[in-house]
Write a structure and sequence with these properties.
Blueprint (H helix, E strand, L loop, with lengths): L1 H10 L4 H48 L5 H11 L6 E5 L9 E10 L12 E10 L2
Antiparallel strand pairs: 1-2, 2-3
Length: 133
């Protein structure tokens, strides 16, 4: 009977060190998943903001005569607080009545998960075309 007690005590030793090692091994994977999900949500939000801002800039350029691309760029950048967005407004027909105005914007996005060197940098783009009135 005494050998059974000794074996049970030997098997029931605390394994705190093992749990810490397992936690240290799995923590980076969990953090990548959490921050990757946050980045994905942020990218979807920024894409929607950029598309709305480009449409708003196109609406402004549509009714402003004579056409000037500076207010359109300013409106797109100010509409969503996207000061680092690159905005191009072009009107190939001279922006006469009936021609098409195209506003395109690109936005560089820095990712939290971008600390991983294998992931490329990301840019979001949006475009809107309207007929000039």
């Amino acid at each position: 009977m005494s050998t059974f007690c000794v074996c049970a005590q030997r098997l029931a030793r605390p394994r705190r060190g093992q749990a810490m090692v397992e936690f240290a091994l799995i923590l980076p994977i969990i953090l990548l998943i959490v921050f990757g999900t946050l980045d994905l949500g942020r990218i979807v939000f920024l894409k929607a903001q950029l598309e709305n801002a480009v449409r708003e800039g196109a609406r402004l350029g549509r009714v402003t005569q004579p056409f000037n691309d500076v207010p359109v760029r300013t409106r797109v950048q100010a509409q969503a607080g996207l000061a680092n967005a690159t905005v191009v407004a072009s009107c190939p027909g001279g922006c006469a009545y009936g021609s098409t105005l195209t506003v395109t914007a690109t936005l560089p996005v820095s990712l939290v998960v971008g600390l991983v060197p294998a992931l490329p940098s990301l840019t979001i783009d949006a475009s809107a075309s309207v007929r000039v009135e």
